[in-house]
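Put briefly, the fold is written as integer tokens. The lines below illustrate.
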Amino acid sequence: MAAIPKCQTKLGSISVVEPEGAVAWWSQQQLPSPTKLIKVFVNKSGCFTLVDRGMGMGAALRERALASGGELRGGANVGKGQMKAADYVMVPDLISNNRNAGGGGLGALASGLIGGPAGRIVGNINISTKTADVVLTVTDVRSSEQVALTEGHAEKNDIGFGARGSLFGSSGVGAAGLGGYANTTQGQVIAMAYLDAYTKLVTELGGMPSNASAANVRQSGTVNKPTHMTTSANTNSKVVRSVTPGMTVYPTGTKAGIAWEVEDEHGNRGWMSSEDFDLAR
């Protein structure tokens, strides 16, 4: 029985970005963009916090523009530094239209398609036999590492009573306004393939750290004034070394008030005021 996987804890925040380019295989099949389907999986699974980088983001930025222009009422509490960062990103990619002799083929994957820009979702669909093979790729936003790539497969025979009842019913994608993904045979096959890939993806990412930002490569900072690193948070403690504007330091994550422990590019470790360096953006 097909069902969207459930998670007890979040694996991080994720953004599903709309595809780019002129070729849209889903429109040829009168289907919505596959990003809409995957967003339903993300929301219903509880495995990720979904951050909007599409139309909702555009609307939010317009509200922020009104706030910065002084148009909103006092106490609106809209400003910089409030948006949640995405830990991971999934980006749909396009497939080529390659009709076969049977008239039903829709795109074998180009040999060089996978392995290009990280974080892509691609599909290889054979309409004549009503099968679908898809790939989900997830990229770590901070390191740009490809942390997961899973393949999904489904056939018409996979859509039985259990699948229709759980996945395409009122508790699944049927009530999500996904049109053809819920009420056409080929759309259901594609949805089943993506569900197969998403289920594998959740399992594969289950071993990832719960705090992706803390577990990632440290953010760097640039010294903005002549100062020095000391052996402790006490500014009167022994000096480790002097630092000059333009030098790069790496906060370790240990803090005491405005004093932060940092390392320089040579591995020297000491304490500095957080006001004496600017974090890289």
In short: The longest strand covers residues 131-140. Residues 94-123, 161-165 have pLDDT under 50 and may be disordered.
